[in-house]
Amino acid sequence: MSDQTLPALDTGPAPVPERRAREIWQFVGLLLVLLLGIGGTVLPSPSAQAASAGPAYGNQSDGYLGALVAESDGKLVYCLDILSPSPLGQPTSGPTTVTQLDTVNGHRLSDETLARLNYVMARWGDSTNPQVTAAVQLYVWTIVDPGAYAEKGGYYIGLIPEGERATVMANLATMEAEAEANATVSPKVTLAVQMRDQYNGTLTVGVEPASMSGTATLTNARFADGSTSKALPPGNYAITGTPPSGAPAYKVGASASYAGAGLGSRVNLYATPGAQRLMAAGTPGAATATAESPLIELDFQPVIGTQVAARYVEEGDAFVDQLAVETTGPGDWIVIDGAPVELSARGTLYGPFAEQPQESETVPEGAPIAGTETLVLDHGAGPYHSSGETVAEESGFYTWVWEIDKDEQGANAKYIRESFRDWFGRVSETHVVPFQPVAESKSDARLAVPGDMVTDTITVESSNGEWLQIDGVPIPVTFTGTAYQVPGTLPPAEQAEVPENATALGTVEVVANAPGVYTSPPVEFPGPGFVTWVWEMRLDQQPEQYRDYIAADWTDQYGIPVETTSVRHPVKITSEVKEYNVHVSGRAFDDIVVSGFPDDHGDFTGDGYWGADRDVIEHTVYGPFESDEQLTDDLDLGSAPVLTKLTTPARNATYRVGFTDADRIQPTEPGFYVVVSVFEGDDRVQPFRSSPADVLERFYVPKPPPGVEVRVSTKAQPEAWVGDPFSDTAVVEGKNLPDGSYLVFRAFGPYAAQPAKDAEGGPFFTSEKIPVDGPGEYQSGATTVDRAGLVFWVETLYTKEGEVLAEGYLGAPGETTVVKDKPGTPPSSPEHPGSLATTGSTDWVLPAGIAAVVLLTSGGVLLFGRRLAQRRAGAEQNDGAQEPTERDRDDGEALDGLDELFEE
Q1: CB 3.0 to 4.6 Å from 630: which of 625, 717, 767, 855, for a disulfide?
Q2: Domains 302-433 and 709-847 share a fold
Q3: What does CATH list as the number for 572-701?
Q4: Is 70 exceeded by the pLDDT of residue 843?
């Protein structure tokens, strides 16, 4: 043992560093090898080799104090007999372990003394420090040869350098004290196993002396770190029992083996014939022990974990649960006579619930029960499954709770620790029976007209039980509704499939967030006929995360009456009284055109939901009225006077009335009359009433009037410049002019020439109403235009009621104004002005005309000469290279004409 492990020894300043000492000994060893190579005659045989000096003080001549090296095994050894010859260079045998030792004087050392020698040499004898080995040698001599030590000890102590002597002596004192305290004649180990319960206990290890080291091994148990064998110092250690699997009882055993250097009364002895004996520490001593617990009775704790065989169970299918039966905590499933202990388990299926139940250790009070099953656990831990006796009858969440009641296990109850009951509401133990959303719809408009935006109301529910929820929120379901135009004109027949010739008018969606009533977005019903709704709920149109909770697709019937709307045909009834003016007691005639009814109208007799056709139109002649201003749309027909009532079929046709005695229209009083046609409407056709304001359905029976003779002529201003004001004058002549009459002037144009009939457009000027109180001249008021041309005036004379007494026409003599560009102003229009209309003349017209002719002739000659020169010059330059414009062609034609005129 090196001195680094002995902090109690005082090593002091070493005369030779340990590294240097090792180098010296290595050199010595090499030298010995070389000597062995020289010849075997000089050295002893390998079985008896010479000892050599080790870490020590002194020399060959003075002697050594310290350790020698036994060349037989390389161990450091120490001299026993201080006065005997030196063993250096002499063959040395060994080692031999001895448990008894006599001194050179024949005195046998006691077991305690021999144990102390063993302890000191085992503890410090292998040191390479001479301060330690010298102290070991002195300790040996004090024990084995005290007399010689007393005589020669001072000499050997003198070999120690003075500066190290105190250290050596201090080390000697330490060795003496520790050997006295720690040396052991007989080492021993004690074991004890104490179990607190079936599996937890303590192993107590006792070792004497405590310096021994060794290993403790457990049987049917393990240490806290999971090992079953480990090196342990003395102490108490927690252990856990590990009985054989399935055993109903077991014992925990322990064994230990400890050993230690320098323990016991034994040393190793080296012999050199005729020289000192040499000694080293003896072989390590060992001690063993065993222990065992009393028999421990066992039990186990069964538990059940389940996973439903199918998370989603269709209505009518069986609920099957898959059980994973295990044990928990210490202890395996007990086996008796080769067979696992048999237990029984009971499963209760709770439900239905609208959503996944909350997990809880106990079942909520009042939880509905769908069914129960009993299962025999006859092969111990492992998989089982329920029988499937309980069948899904309605939608909802269903959760299993399994239990093993100890009190129900009979003789086998002693083998289980306590009862087991599963938690309520575990997701893995819960089935879902999907719900089936359905809808019942009713059109929000039984009757409609083309162009109406119609909605549908649907009542949504689950047809097989609970409307399922997730996290307290009902699962949203999307319903799709399509409005179909029914072929033909009759109501649809109820059927499962949509006819191929039905036309989809629009498709809408309603998201139902829970059972309830919902209104769809509107769909336009564009044309007449029947429109029926068909609703459906398709899984592939639902959000993916909700599809598993919904049972199947659902589709409504086609043609359900309450889901159908009649878009009633708009009927049109027009009439035109053949004579507007009818004398008293005369007859009026009317042509009535009826259209818009279905072609088969009048033939449909109803089907129990839709009413029969109404096959009559009533035509009422109202009057007389004093004024046609009374004939307005909001005329109160209930209080209006009635001349007669006629009827026609409610079918498309033209009906002529008033020609027979049965339908005669014969007014007896003067005034205004109007024919109003009324169809009350039915389930296929809209009601209709013609307007009392319709002028085509009126006629008038006048009072015998006094003769009115009136005529109107005009004197329009004949000419005007562009931008200057001009006007018209009307001359009213005649007699019996009605009071309140008035004139209105209208001006049309300007035109290049008089326009064709119906091409004149509207007037650009309309005068105020000019009161006319008798014959005379009346002014229109002034107007202006911004370009040259012809302006035509039209005057109209009205009665105060708006009847026309006299009216001019466009282009009448005396009703035209010629508007010209002012002199020096470029023409405002590229077109030649047309011929001016003839107007009425006055006294100044003839002289002015003659002067105009002279001026025009002179100007024409000059213009002709200038244009002719320009034309000829242009012809010479261009030689026809450029296409002449239309104006050039017009001017050219005029010049050609004038050229011919002048040549004549």
Answers
A1: 625
A2: yes
A3: 2.60.40.1930
A4: no
Q: For residue range 34-82, list pLDDT tens digits in order.
A: 333 333 333 333 344 557 889 999 998 889 999 999 988 889 999 998 8
pTM exceeds 0.70 for this model: no
Asked whether 597 and 618 are in contact (CB, 8 A), the reply is no
Q: Give the pair of three-digit tokens for residue 735.
A: 């007699």
Closest CA to 186 of 279, 255, 99, 95: 99
C-alpha closest to that of 609 among 534, 684, 557: 684
Q: Which CATH architecture describes the domain 302-433?
A: Sandwich (2.60)
Asked whether the beta carbons of 357 and 425 are under 8 A apart, the reply is: yes
Report the pLDDT value the prediction gives residue 330, as an integer from 0 to 100: 84
Judge contact between 278 and 87, C-beta under 8 A: yes
Burial class (CB in 10 A: 0-12, 13-18, 19+), 273: exposed
| Extents of the domains making up the chain | 3-182, 302-433, 439-567, 572-701, 709-847
CATH, domain range 709-847: 2.60.40.2550
Could you report the per-residue pLDDT of 653-691, keeping only the tens digit for each?
999 998 888 899 999 899 999 999 999 999 999 999 999
Q: What's the length of the chain?
A: 904
Specify the pairing of strand 447-448 against strand 564-567.
parallel
Per-residue model confidence (pLDDT) at position 876: 37
CA distance 34 to 28: 10
- 400: helix, strand or coil: strand
Written in H, E and C, the secondary structure of 242-307 is CCCCCCCEECCEEEEEEEECCCCCCEEEEECCCCCCEEEECCCEEEEEEEECCCEECCECEEEEEE
* Residue 123: strand, helix, or coil: helix
CATH superfamily of 439-567: Macroglobulin (MG2) domain (2.60.40.1930)
